[in-house]
Design brief:
about 425 residues; Na+/H+ antiporter like fold; mainly alpha; disordered N terminus
């Protein structure tokens, strides 16, 4: 006799879902370790493991991947919350206005360059959203190089706060561009007045700020009431998990951004707690989320479609070239505006090329958002992003190391 659970779903379906999650975790972990042994970021290994499970062997079908979509939502929430946690006003004040200017200029310039080039070869929805995704930079490979080679100097001092702000700026740009992209996809052309054009993005951003601020304020207050002791880390983690699930759920229910909302909440939390609590919270989150991240990136790799990718080769090539031009050119312009050290103007853009976590998260958000509007657009955005992440995961750290070397900031080989 078949046992039925929620919504008359057979027990076998739940069993296969649990089994698949276990296999994804195992393959992702193994390939991540293999990537590290050849000095590649573990994220690259997760994506390759996903390719093996998805388009190469078809072990995971599109239906099975759809059943795992909740993992992507949860992972996006944690990624966004962590980005918000970096927006501590005390840290921003220490960084100074120069860092803010450089970050804004290079992010906006990259978006404009990539979107402008892509508008010549593809539809507005794809061009705008890929332009926003191009602004995101992966801090992990950069920090790994800084720690490994003990880099020290003006370039290192600048890139650390810039990459901390960069993802937050990229998420905000993405929120606007995603709303515009969906609007264009539904309308099919540019025949929109200004009010129609901005209504959707403003509503989404407004709701995200409202929900994120309210929940973040409550979470920050709850965190401050936790007493020091053996269970402090566990209680902090409970608050974070509750915050992420509630912000993502409310955002999805009320058509706010499931990325911006937890990011705003994270910013409100971090600005209410003291430095000691912040450090503890950061360590606790880092200890908890690795399995979620492995699942997220491996599933993202499994969603890569070779058939779609083969039809967007030109768009992908333009995206990669445009992003390099945007990051290098935008960083140079921003550094020139604030008159920083010549090494920053020359080499900051090369250090900013690595791209992974947040970019994949944004691409996944776009894929989900377009599932009911235009699936081809969502698939194209996700495939181009995943392919470019693999490229930048390979060349990004290499170019960043060269940049640190040229700036004479490497202290230990």
């Amino acid at each position: 006799m078949t046992v039925l659970l929620v919504a008359d779903v057979p027990l076998d379906s739940y069993a296969m879902l649990i089994l698949n999650v276990g296999v994804v975790l195992l393959i992702g972990l193994v390939f991540g370790k293999l990537a590290e042994t050849i000095n590649l970021p573990n994220i690259t290994g997760y994506l390759v493991g996903g390719l093996l499970l998805g388009p190469i062997t078809h072990f995971l079908t599109s239906e099975e991947l759809a059943h795992m979509s909740i993992i992507s939502y949860v992972a996006l929430g944690f990624i966004a919350f962590q980005v918000g946690n970096e927006l501590w006003l005390g840290k921003l004040k220490k960084s100074g206005s120069k860092i803010v200017v450089i970050t804004l200029v290079q992010a906006l310039f990259t978006t404009l360059v990539v979107s402008g080039l892509l508008l010549m070869v593809t539809e507005p929805s794809i061009a705008l959203i890929l332009g926003a995704i191009a602004a995101a930079t992966a801090p992990a490979p950069i920090m790994m190089l800084i720690n490994k080679h003990r880099t020290k100097g003006p370039l290192t001092s600048t890139v650390v706060p810039v990459v901390g702000l960069d993802d937050a700026v990229g998420v905000i740009i993405f929120g606007v561009m995603l709303s515009l992209g969906i609007t264009f996809a539904r309308q099919g052309d540019f025949s929109l007045n200004f009010t129609e054009l901005v209504r959707g993005p403003l509503k989404e951003i407004g709701l995200s700020v409202l929900f994120g601020a309210a929940i973040g304020f409550a979470s920050g207050f709850a965190t401050k009431t936790i007493r020091k002791g053996r269970e402090q880390g566990e209680k902090n983690l409970n608050v974070v998990i509750i915050t992420v699930f509630i912000t993502v759920g409310i955002a999805m229910l009320f058509d706010a951004s499931p990325i911006l909302t937890p990011m705003i909440a994270g910013a409100f939390v971090t600005n209410q707690i003291n430095k000691e609590t912040y450090i503890l919270e950061e360590k606790t989150i880092r200890f908890f989320i690795p399995p979620i991240m492995i699942l997220f990136f491996t599933i993202s790799g499994a969603r890569l479609s070779f058939s779609v990718l083969s039809t967007v080769g030109l768009i992908g090539a333009i995206y990669i070239v445009g992003r390099v031009i945007g990051k290098v050119g935008g960083s140079a312009i921003g550094a020139s505006v604030v008159k920083t050290d010549p090494a920053i103007k020359k080499y900051l853009g090369l250090v900013m090329l690595p791209q992974s976590g947040v970019a994949i998260g944004l691409a996944t958000a776009a894929y989900v958002a377009f599932s009911d509007v235009n699936q081809d657009v969502g698939a194209t955005i996700q495939n181009i992003t995943l392919a470019s992440v693999l490229v930048f995961a390979l060349i990004g750290p290499v170019l960043a190391k060269i940049a640190f070397g040229k700036a004479k900031e490497i202290r230990e080989e």
